[in-house]
Write a structure and sequence with these properties.
mainly alpha, 4 helices, about 110 residues
């Protein structure tokens, strides 16, 4: 099977991807937005009261960001591997490592 056949409109996988795109945009990303909003409020209050962020929340949000990134990569056709629940939930360690393999934050984007 050639590459053009695998990306053809008659290929069922392209229709499955459309279904996932619709589900992720209509349900999953909305739910992630609600969860992130709640987490931001909680983390802000925790930081204001205790003087430091909650480590479990940091780990959870790192994993949630990894899931969100993986889902976006899939629905924009950058990768073919479906995101959770079809793969494992991302772990915080693999999400926070940069391309050099350490935990240093990447250089921020700067406007010139």
């Amino acid at each position: 099977m050639s590459e053009s056949d695998s990306n053809s409109i008659s290929n069922p996988s392209i229709w499955w991807r459309l279904l996932f795109i619709l589900i992720y945009f209509s349900v999953v990303f909305y739910a992630v937005k609600v969860v992130i909003t709640l987490v931001v409020v909680f983390q802000f209050l925790h930081q204001a009261i205790k003087g430091e962020p909650n480590e479990r929340i940091l780990s959870f949000t790192s994993q949630l960001n990894g899931f969100n990134y993986h889902a976006l990569q899939y629905i924009t056709f950058n990768i073919d591997e479906r995101p959770f629940p079809f793969t494992d939930w991302p772990d915080a360690e693999s999400v926070t490592m940069n391309e050099r393999g350490n935990h240093e934050p990447p250089v921020p984007y700067r406007h010139f």
